[in-house]
Amino acid sequence: MTVLAKTEEAVTPDVKSIPLRTHSLVSPYLDSDMQSRWFDFGGDTIVRADQYIRLASDRPSQSGWVFSRVPLTATNWEIEVEFKISGNGNLYGDGMAMWITKQRAQPGPVFGSVDIFEGLGIFFDTYKNNRPGVVFPYVMAMLGDGNTPYDQGNDGKSNELAGCSARGIRNQAIPTKARLTYFQDKNLVLELQYKSEDTWTPCFEIPEIKLPSVAYLGFSAETGELSDNFDIIKVETKNLYSAVGGTAGQAAQKEFSKSKGKSYDPSKLHTGGGWSWFMLKFVFFGLALTGANLLAQRNEIKRLEKELKKRRQEEEEDDRREDEEASKRAVEEFERVQMGLEVKLGAGGTALTAREAGEIVMNDGVNGTRGVKRKFELDEEELLRIVKEERGKARKELSDEKRAASKSSLPSFWVPSLTPSTNAQSATHKIPETPKIHPICPASSEDKPHEYSLKTLIAIQFTEEKDSRTGEQVRSCPSCRKALSNTSKAMLAKPCGHVICKPCVEKFMTPKPPDAHGPSSEAGGVRCYVCETELSGRSRKKDNEKGKDKEGREKTKPGLVEIKSEGTGFAGGGKNLVEKKGIAFQC
């Protein structure tokens, strides 16, 4: 399991690409629960799992959209869309759009989405409103600033960055495709395939364009009085990077300089950001996720502790109220005994019968003998025992009376005033002692969960050197001075945080064998190649077995950890699954 699970070879050996399944759509489009993990659908969109995603059908006044759930954060990327525009009539409209914007899933008047947006819009306009001298269908690009609306009355003439006519793109027998390639702050290229299969026709190229670094990918379509079918067949998104550490813009410029005087072929521009930049983004993204997860777990722990405190206060209030009722009952019974209205049986068959000369006269019935009177001698322990027994008995009688009253009055348990109270003394309602709650690492398995905290996180220390070819700073191994890559395996030393490639770790950081002539030598010890920090944990064996310091704080366990991710590094993997349950349909 490595950072790059799959790459595709480009025309030049220095350029590679990584598929992003978080922003790709392929049949059957939906998961087993009839939902898409990475995309949302809305409007009049129809999903045919074996054929297409129909954004708008060949009927008047239809509009639909599909947008990604997570933003596209790749520095350089390529999006290839297979679509189909078809219909039965000779008059047709209105069109479809491809969006890379900060806004998502907002219906509106422009091809099914909003007319004011921030980001890029690629419009496939099939109906001509007021644009003389232009052949339709027409494909154009607009860069929205969040304030300027789309000029719908003039087919976006005042908003157009670049565009091209695409006569014949409708009702084609071959697959129709659009490929959009972007290099950060360098250029944006759109090419179309509709004349013949595997033949790409350049549409436009926009130099020095800057798109939002965090934007959502989406598609939408709309029909008015005239209509067509607008279908999305497949979407393939790739992250582009340079395997030798060069930037996407530099690689692109090299390809352009080589192709001067030759036919333009944008398919050769499969370039992208360097490995060092990719590794840096991966580490930052992991740290952000870890911090967010840790913060969320701490908030949940605080909520549970607050709820537990509230439950304890409610239990104490219930106990206090029951004690008051029991005391009141005991006083009433005592007064009845004083007035001779009731004979109160005590423990062991003892009856309180009367008072003589200021003393209580009790009828002792111990061992079956009754009628024997004796003087009650005031004893503190005996008095406390009797009070405790009487109070407990009174509370039990009150509980029995309430339970019997709730059963005999009305069996309508849904009436709030008649809802029977639960028995707080039962084992199911007991509030346990305050548990020791700690954040759990989201990457740990269910059978072996492990705790973590901010104090146990390691600060990664990369060694940076200037590349001799590009002149840029690249992250390299401090031992062999080679740039870190997917093949060299970056290893992290704990707790110092230095990063060394795996071949050098196997050569220089293996446990030392025991020396028969030097019993005091450090046999079995492993030290960091950079700072000589002990990594085998030998110096910590004298500490307590719980792995904590004298103040009780958790300590970082020394060792070596490989820096890797599941899948491609852009999507989740493994067996851990976060589930969210709710009502899918409701009448």
From TrEMBL:
Alphabetical list of InterPro entries matching this protein: ConA-like_dom_sf, Intracellular_Lectin-GPT, Lectin_leg, Znf_RING, Znf_RING/FYVE/PHD, Znf_RING_CS
GO MF entry, a single one: D-mannose binding
Name assigned to this protein: L-type lectin-like domain-containing protein
What Gene Ontology biological process does one annotation of this record name? endoplasmic reticulum to Golgi vesicle-mediated transport
**Coiled coil: which residue ranges?**
none
GO cellular-component term (any):
endoplasmic reticulum membrane
The UniProt entry, under CDD domains, shows: lectin_leg-like
**PROSITE patterns named in the record:** L_LECTIN_LIKE, ZF_RING_1, ZF_RING_2
Question: Where does the record place it?
Answer: Membrane
